[in-house]
Description:
Chain A has two domains: 3-7 and 67-262, 3-Layer(aba) Sandwich (Rossmann fold); 269-400, Coagulation Factor XIII, Chain A, domain 1 (Distorted Sandwich). Helix content of chain A is 23%, strand content 32%. Chain A has helices spanning 23-35, 41-44, 86-93, 126-136, 141-155, 170-182, 200-216, 228-234, 252-263; strands at 3-15, 47-48, 59-71, 75-79, 101-106, 110-113, 188-191, 220-224, 237-242, 245-251, 269-271, 283-291, 300-302, 307-315, 320-321, 323-330, 335-340, 351-352, 355-363, 371-382, 385-390, 395-400. Chain A has a six-stranded mixed β-sheet with strand order 6-7-8-4-9-10, sandwiched between helices. Chain A starts with a strand and ends in a 32-residue tail after the last strand. By secondary structure, chain B is mainly α. Chain B has one domain (53-285). Chain B has 14 helices and one strand. In chain B, helix 5 runs antiparallel to helix 10 (195-209). Chain B starts with a helix and ends in a 7-residue tail after the last helix. The interface between A and B is large, with 50 and 41 residues.
Amino acid sequence: MSAVIKVENLSKAYQLGEIGTGTLSRDLERSWAKLRGKEDPFLKIGEVNDRAVKGESDVVWSLKDINFEIEQGAAVGIIGRNGAGKSTLLKILSRVTSPTTGTAKLKGRIASLLEVGTGFHPELSGRENIYLNGAILGMRKAEIKQKFDEIVDFSGVERYIDTPVKRYSSGMYVRLAFAVAAHLESEIMIVDEVLAVGDAEFQKKCLGKMGDVSKGEGRTVLFVSHNLTAITRLCSSSMLLRNGLLIEHDVTHKIITNYLSIDEISTSFMQWESGKAPGNGVARILSAGVFNEKYEVYEYIDIRKPVIIKMEYEVLIDDVKLTHAFVFHNEHGIRLFDSHDVNSDWKSNSARKKGRYTAEMLIPGNFFSEGKIKISPAVITSDPFELHAYAEDSISFLVKDSLEGDSARGEYAGSYGGVIRPMFSWQADFIG
Amino acid sequence: MSEISQEDWDIELTPANNMLDLKLKDIWHYRDLLVLLVRRDFVSFYKQTILGPLWFFIQPLFTTLIYTFVFGNLAAIPTDGLPQPLFYLAGITAWNYFSDCLGKTSSVFVSNAGLFGKVYFPRLIVPLSIVASNLIRFAVQMALFVLMMIFYWVKGASFHPNAYLLLFPLLLVLMAMLGLGLGMIISAMTTKYRDLTFLISFGIQLMMYLTTVIYPLSTVKAKYPKYQWLVEYNPMTSIIEAFRYGFLGQGTFTILSLGITTVITTFILLIGIVIFNRVERNFIDTV
């Protein structure tokens, strides 16, 4: 396989603040420097782009010294927080803007989908817009004509094809727009977060189409999304951008773990300072965390693998009856279940002496559903009920479903409902 | 994987490009887009209107009426001995084409920012489509002009179409080039300094008064010989004078003045294209 995209020392500087007042004198200063063959004075003072930190200079590097190569047929995800430079990179590669320094080389035609329905005219019918949009994306008229039926079929808006698109629902609009772009014959496909719209069925169709494009047709896909599940499903390798720098380019699961542990505030392990430990005068929680089988702190867990939840707490007085528990919520705030220790030695009515304790529970694989799981560790007395310490939603982790066909979802690749996703044994026979 | 294929890139994106690379090959590839954009402009113009393309008639007709009243009758500006409505309509038809091309081209970056910011295609396609779709409007207005000529012919007014009519295609091309060239220069500047957008509509109007739309060049020459250069060096003047001479047999122009206009226009167009190509690469960052 040969490289179809090669990016060398690519940088892009942006000017912050108002453009207008003062720009004329600045422009003159810049062209004066250029005329004398000197470096642009305003780029010298550019700084790393961290949107949260107030900077000294008006110029920021939205991308700085990016280098990478992408092989033909690869589907590559681009991950990063808002403002990390993802969209800037896609804009440069799709030739909407040009780099400040460095080069990018590409082979073949590029289809860029930075937005769906670019150039759609509300007054024109779906049919007319297919032609217009196709031509904007670089298709010849004959090519569109040839694929017209396929496009209409994929979009599923056949009935409305001669109605002006301003009468379309937003979902239909997106369907039609994506259908045009997906049928563009190009060697490289660049897709920015465009699947956020459209219903689940259509999102699945889009992802499926993009998968076909890269795996089946050998075309290269660059995909930006905040939907980590979509990225894991589609992209074998990914790039992590942070403040305009390319941090890592590796297999997707490594990148996602790295992204979650640094770019998202790390929450799979929590340790409280002595003064701030949650609890009353009886017990206090000192730390809690999520681990894999090897007791490594883990944020991103394969749905098939077991999870270990562990906490450490301190009992402050002697002879108190209590036990430890965890409460589980999913990302939508639905309480999944509670669990407390019922072993005879440790159950709620066993008396404890003063000191520090640890407790852990093992949850088998093939139990949680995909998504974020939030855990609240607790120390309780059950009869009469008393809550001594409770750290609400203090730790969390993400469950990633497998696409290898051996989890509960099997071969089904679409959106899968339910708050848990257990694997049960099935028995079926042919009886007639 | 051979070394040769490794270096065989189709597209290279670099900070600066060759100023004189006009990307004509790219433009040719996107020719269908040009046609579709023209169609879009035409169809969307009269969708949800009752009169539809008739609107193309109404504007020049009423302008002619008002000019005839104000400039012809109230101010009594001579019209080279031609019937006043015919004189004005000739000027208005030609001027409208030029000013439409100029006005729309000059705002091409600002009004297409949404499109340009999301997808790449040779940007020059859009100004070209503007010039082409204005041609439809111009054709309709020319038909009106010809109808008016027939009307006055029947009435027995004196005017004499002649062999200079053959210059018409050249005049049309010159107007398109001039509108396109000036428009692109202005559009490139409006991406950063929006001040020019305010200037442009007002500027086009001022320029009209420096062009022989409502008065003939001969009158200026006779009355204000000191200032005649202002009007004479305006490239649109010799175009409109030649236009009137060809169709109506009255007008002050020489092959030399038309030649100078051609040179100036070509020059402006080239500068326009170069500036436009330079700005299109990064305008989305400042627009």
